[in-house]
Design a protein that fits this description.
The chain is an alpha+beta fold. It is built from 35 helices and 27 strands. The strands form four sheets. Strands 10, 11, 12, 13, 16, 17, 18, 19, 20 and 21 form a ten-stranded mixed sheet that branches. It has an eight-stranded mixed sheet with strand order 8-27-26-25-9-22-24-23, sandwiched between helices. Strand 16 and strand 17 form a beta hairpin. It is elongated and about 120 Å long. It starts with 6 loop residues before the first helix and ends with a helix. The N terminus is likely disordered.
Length: 915
C-alpha cells in the first residue's frame, strides 16, 4: 500500500523543479502510481495535511479599525487635541464643532476607501472547477478543491486545468495559458525533460492551474495545489504588495507633516507670547484659534470632491476609476507599461501576407470578420488570374479542424486561433467553408502533432482524391518535390530546387521579420481508391502551394494613443509573455521606441540581472518578452526606484501583482480576468489602449484643478494665522474666533472651491511634459502665490476689524465685517484663477468650441454670498458664532475693501500662472 507523505516531505515537494525530472522520478517523489493513482486513504491523509486546493488570502481589517485609521493623519490629530483642550476649558460647543469637523473628514475618507482586498477571492474562482482523476485504479470526477499532490488527472479538450501538473502522457495536447503567461497562442504540450532555467511560458511538459485545454488529450500528476501553484504564488506576490501609496498621497503626507511642524511652532509661540500679556485662558484661546485657523479643514473634502468629478469625466471616456487617488496618479504618469496580447493588439490572429505561385499578396481587414481584400501591388487581385493563390486559400480552409461563428454581433473562432485566421483569409476571397466541405468531402485526417509539426486531411474532390497539408515551413518543404506556379500548375523539380533556396526562404524571412507566424501549405493527388490517411502517405511527393503569414495585429486606435502618449512625454513599454521577435515587430509597427530604437530583453536575461542592472535595463529597454509574473513585478519596482510614476496595463492573472504594485494599475474591463480587475485601480470599459490617453488627459486636468483648489484654500488659512499671530504679538483683541475660522474653512471654503473641480482642461494639456515625480505639492512659485494672497487677506481682516472696532466700538460687528470683506476678496480671487473669463472670451472669438461651464463658478459664488447673509443675519448663528447683522452700507463697504484683489491677483498670476 502507498504510504502517506510526511509533512516535511510534502513541504519539499513544493520547491521541486518538476519540469526537470523524468516522469518515473516525478511519480516516485510523489509516492504515486501512474496507472492506479493514489489510494483514497492516502488522498484523505494528504488533504488534511496539505489542505484544500484553494487559494487563501490574509484577513482584511475590521470595518471599525478602518474607520479609526482615518483619524491617523497629523492634521486631524492636532484638531482632535484642539477640541480636547476646548472641552477641558469648558467650551463644549466649540469642542463639539471641532470634533464634528474631524469626524466628517474621517467619514468621507472611510466611504471613499477601496473595497476590502478581494483579488485573492477572484484568484480562487479562477481555479475552481471539477477534475477527472484516477484513484484506487478507478476514474472519478471530483471537485478540484479535493485534489492533492500525487493525484493522476485526465485532461481533454474544453477542460480547465485544476492544479499544477507534470504531464506524463499527451496526445496532440494544446493548452491556452495566456491568462498566466501572456502567450497569445495555445501551447503545444509534450512530456520531455526541460532545463531548470526555462521560462514559465516555455515549460511544455507542465500544465498550470487556470489554463484551458483547447485541443487533444493528456494525463498529468498533480505536483502543486492551492497557494503552492503558480497561480497561488501570484496570490502571495499580491499580498506582499498591497499597501502602495500614490504620488498624491505621498505629497499630501509630506505637506501635512511640514504644515504640522509650522502650526505647532506658531501655536507654541502664540501661547508663550499670550501668557506675557494675558491670562492663561486667553493665551490658550489664541493658541487654539491659531491652530484651527492654520489647518485647512476643508481641504480633504475638496480634494475628494475634485477627484470624484474627475472619476465622472473619465467614466464618460470609458475609464472606470476604482480608487480615487488614481485619478491624479494617471495624470502624473511618466511610463506606461503595457501588456501586448489583447491590450495593444486585437487578440485575434489575422493573415496579413500570402506567398503563392511566385507572387506576394497582402490582406486587409482585422480579426475573424470576413471583411477585407487581397491585394497585389496595392490593387485588388483577380482570383481567376491567380490560380496558385486560390489553391493556397482553399488548402487553408480545408486542412482545418476549426470553424467561425458569429456571437453577439462579433465573429469568433471555435477552435484554434491560427486555423480561424486561415478561414478568415479564404472568406475574404469569397470562399465558404461549409460549401467547400460539401463539394470536397473530408474522408480522413491526421491531426496536428508537435512531433511531426503538420496536419493533413484527405478529401474527395471533383478532380479526384487529394491530400492537403499545413504545418511548419521546415516540415513541409522537406517533403515537397514540386511547387505550383501562378496558374496553379506544378513546376519542374529543378526550378523548385533553385527557388527553395531563394524565393521561399526569402519570403519566410521577410514574414518572420514582420513578426508573422508562417505556415506552409501543400497538397498531393492520390488514387481514388484511397480512403485512409497515414504519415507515410505524405513523407514524399508533396506539391508546395504557398505560405500564409499571420499575426495578432495591433489596434489602430492603440497606435494613435501610443503616439499621443509619447508626444506628451510619456514612455510606453511593452511587457509580455510572448516571443521577443513577435513583440519587437509589434512595437515597430506601433511606433513604440526610445530614441528611435526598440531594445528588447527576455525574461531569461532579466533573471540574471541584479537590482542595479535591472533598473538600468528597465529604463533603456522598450520590449520585455517571455516575462514571468514576478519579473513584471520587478520591472515595475525597478522603474519606480528610478523615480518613475508607473502605469501598468494588463488583463491576465499573470498581470495582477504588477498591477497592484504599479502607481496605477489599468485592467481591461471586457476581456480582462476578474483577478486583474480586482487588482487594478482603473478599468477600461472598451478594452482600448486609446482610452488610457484620454484618461491621462483628464488626470492632468484634475491635478491642475487640485493645485488651484489648494492655492485658493491655503491663503485663507495663511491670512487667518497671520492675523491671530500678529494680534497676539501686539496684545490686541483677536479679529477672528475659532468657531468663525471653522465656518470659513469648512462651509465657505468648500462652497467656493468645489466649482474649481469643474474647470475644463487647458487646450495644451497633452503637449506639456509630465511634471517631475518629485515636484512638491507646494512649489516655489506656488508658495510665493500663497504668501502674497495671504498677506492681502491679513491686511483685509486686520484692517477692517481695527477700523470698525475703533469707529463703532462693536467687536462682534467688526469681526463680522472683517470676515465678509475677506469673502468679497475671495470672490474676486476665484474669478482670477478660474478659466471662466478667458474661456468666455475665447468662446466669443471662436478659439474654442466647447461649452463653458458657467453655472459651477456662478453657483459657487452665489452659495458663498447666501452663506454670509446667514452668517450675519440669522439670530441662532449670531449667538453661536458671535456675529452681528450688517446694513446695506456696511455690505457695500466690505465689497469695496475686497475689490483691490483684482489688481493684486493679476500681479500674482504673472509669476505663477494658474492655468
Amino acid at each position: 500500500m502507498v504510504q502517506a507523505a510526511s509533512p516535511i516531505a510534502s513541504q519539499e515537494k513544493q520547491f521541486t523543479v518538476w519540469h526537470t525530472l523524468e516522469i518515473s522520478e516525478t511519480i516516485a517523489r510523489l509516492d504515486s502510481d501512474a496507472e492506479n493513482g493514489l489510494s483514497s486513504v492516502v488522498a484523505k491523509h494528504l488533504l488534511s495535511e496539505v489542505g484544500a486546493n484553494e487559494l487563501t488570502g490574509k484577513k482584511s481589517k475590521a470595518w471599525w479599525l478602518k474607520f479609526l485609521l482615518q483619524f491617523n493623519q497629523p492634521l486631524l490629530i492636532i484638531l482632535l487635541c484642539a477640541g480636547l483642550v476646548k472641552a477641558l476649558t469648558g467650551s463644549l460647543v466649540n469642542a463639539g464643532v471641532i470634533w464634528g469637523v474631524t469626524t466628517t473628514n474621517a467619514i468621507i475618507g472611510f466611504i471613499q476607501e477601496s473595497k476590502a482586498e478581494s483579488a485573492i477571492a477572484a484568484l480562487a474562482k479562477a481555479i475552481t472547477t471539477e477534475a477527472t482523476i484516477i484513484r484506487d485504479g478507478q476514474k472519478l470526477r471530483i471537485a478540484s478543491g479535493e485534489l492533492v499532490p500525487g493525484d493522476i488527472v485526465l485532461l481533454t479538450s474544453g477542460d480547465k486545468v485544476p492544479a499544477d501538473l507534470r504531464l506524463i502522457k499527451v496526445k496532440n495536447l494544446q493548452i491556452d495559458e495566456s491568462a498566466l503567461t501572456g502567450e497569445s497562442l495555445a501551447v503545444e504540450k509534450n512530456t520531455q525533460i526541460l532545463k531548470p532555467d526555462i521560462a514559465l511560458a516555455e515549460r511544455t511538459n507542465m500544465a498550470y492551474a487556470g489554463g484551458f485545454v483547447t485541443f487533444g488529450q493528456g494525463t498529468g500528476v498533480v505536483v502543486a495545489t492551492g497557494n503552492a501553484t503558480e497561480t497561488g504564488r501570484i496570490s502571495e506576490l499580491m499580498e506582499q504588495h498591497t499597501d502602495i501609496s500614490t504620488p498624491l498621497t505621498r505629497k499630501f503626507n509630506k505637506f501635512s507633516q511640514n504644515w504640522l511642524y509650522m502650526v505647532l511652532g506658531l501655536a507654541a509661540l502664540c501661547f508663550v507670547v499670550g501668557l506675557s500679556f494675558r491670562g492663561f485662558e486667553e493665551a490658550l484661546e489664541a493658541a487654539v484659534t491659531l491652530t484651527v485657523s492654520a489647518i485647512p479643514e476643508g481641504l480633504p473634502a475638496v480634494v475628494t470632491v475634485t477627484l470624484a468629478i474627475g472619476v465622472s469625466r473619465m467614466a464618460r471616456r470609458n475609464a472606470i476609476i476604482r480608487k480615487l487617488p488614481a485619478v491624479e496618479t494617471l495624470g502624473s504618469a511618466t511610463v506606461v507599461c503595457s501588456d501586448k496580447t489583447g491590450t495593444l493588439t486585437e487578440n485575434q490572429m489575422t493573415v496579413q501576407a500570402i506567398y503563392a505561385g511566385g507572387y506576394q499578396y497582402t490582406l486587409t481587414g482585422i480579426g475573424y470578420t470576413p471583411e477585407g481584400e487581397i491585394l497585389i501591388d496595392d490593387k485588388p487581385v483577380n482570383l481567376n488570374s491567380h490560380k496558385g493563390l486560390q489553391e493556397c486559400l482553399i488548402a487553408g480552409l480545408l486542412c482545418n479542424d476549426s470553424h467561425l461563428e458569429k456571437k453577439n454581433g462579433r465573429w469568433v473562432v471555435m477552435g484554434d486561433p491560427t486555423e480561424g485566421a486561415l478561414i478568415a483569409s479564404a472568406n475574404k476571397a469569397g470562399f465558404s467553408q461549409p460549401t467547400l466541405l460539401k463539394q470536397m468531402l473530408k474522408v480522413d485526417a491526421i491531426p496536428f502533432e508537435s512531433d511531426f509539426q503538420y496536419m493533413a486531411t484527405l478529401h474527395a474532390t471533383p478532380q479526384g482524391k487529394t491530400i492537403y497539408v499545413k504545418g511548419s515551413v521546415e516540415a513541409i518543404l522537406q517533403r515537397c518535390t514540386l511547387m505550383l506556379n501562378t496558374d496553379g500548375q506544378p513546376r519542374p523539380l529543378d526550378c523548385v530546387e533553385t527557388l527553395r533556396q531563394s524565393s521561399i526562404e526569402r519570403e519566410v524571412n521577410i514574414m518572420a521579420r514582420q513578426g508573422l507566424r508562417v505556415l506552409a501549405l501543400a497538397k498531393k493527388v492520390v488514387p481514388d481508391g484511397q480512403n485512409t490517411l497515414d504519415h507515410p502517405d505524405i513523407d514524399t511527393g508533396l506539391i508546395f502551394i504557398g505560405l500564409q503569414g499571420m499575426i495578432d495585429p495591433p489596434r489602430e486606435s492603440a497606435i494613435k494613443a501610443v503616439q499621443a502618449c509619447q508626444e506628451a512625454g510619456i514612455e510606453v513599454k511593452m511587457i509580455t509573455g510572448d516571443h521577443a521577435i513577435t513583440a519587437q515587430a509589434i512595437a515597430y509597427r506601433m511606433g513604440i521606441n526610445k530614441n528611435g530604437s526598440v531594445l528588447a530583453f527576455t525574461g531569461a536575461e532579466l533573471a540574471k540581472m541584479d537590482k542595479t542592472e535591472l533598473a538600468q535595463v528597465a529604463q533603456e529597454g522598450v520590449v520585455f518578452a517571455r516575462v514571468a509574473p514576478e519579473q513584471k513585478l520587478r520591472l515595475v519596482e525597478a522603474l519606480q526606484s528610478k523615480g518613475e510614476i508607473v502605469a501598468m496595463t494588463g488583463d491576465g492573472v499573470n498581470d495582477a501583482p504588477a498591477l497592484k504594485q504599479a502607481d496605477i494599475g489599468i485592467a481591461m474591463g471586457g476581456t480582462g480576468t476578474e483577478v486583474a480587475k480586482e487588482a487594478a485601480d482603473m478599468l477600461l470599459t472598451d478594452d482600448n489602449f486609446a482610452s488610457i490617453e484620454a484618461a491621462i488627459e483628464e488626470g492632468r486636468a484634475v491635478y491642475k484643478n487640485l493645485l488651484k483648489a489648494i492655492c485658493f484654500i491655503l491663503p485663507v488659512n495663511g491670512g487667518e494665522s497671520m492675523t491671530i499671530l500678529i494680534s497676539t504679538l501686539l496684545a490686541r483683541d483677536l479679529p477672528i474666533l475659532s468657531l468663525q475660522v471653522l465656518w470659513l474653512n469648512m462651509l465657505n471654503s468648500i462652497t467656493m472651491t468645489v466649482p474649481l473641480a469643474f474647470e475644463p482642461k487647458a487646450q495644451n494639456v497633452m503637449q506639456q511634459a509630465p511634471r517631475h515625480p518629485n515636484e512638491p505639492l507646494i512649489s516655489g512659485s506656488r508658495l510665493q502665490r500663497i504668501l502674497a494672497i495671504s498677506l492681502f487677506n491679513w491686511i483685509v481682516i486686520f484692517g477692517v476689524f481695527e477700523y470698525i472696532r475703533q469707529t463703532t466700538g462693536n467687536i462682534d460687528l467688526a469681526r463680522t465685517m472683517a470676515i465678509n470683506a475677506l469673502i468679497a476678496g475671495r470672490i474676486f480671487y476665484l474669478l482670477s484663477i478660474s478659466q471662466l473669463i478667458p474661456n468666455l472670451i475665447a468662446k466669443m472669438d471662436g478659439t474654442i468650441k466647447e461649452n463653458v461651464d458657467i453655472p459651477a463658478i456662478g453657483f459657487g459664488i452665489l452659495g458663498a454670498i447666501i452663506l454670509q447673509i446667514i452668517f450675519a443675519h440669522v439670530p441662532l448663528i449670531n449667538e453661536v458664532f458671535e456675529t452681528a447683522p450688517l446694513n446695506l452700507q456696511q455690505w457695500l463697504f466690505c465689497l469695496a475693501v475686497g475689490s483691490p484683489m483684482i489688481l493684486w491677483a493679476t500681479v500674482v498670476n504673472r509669476f505663477d500662472p494658474p492655468n
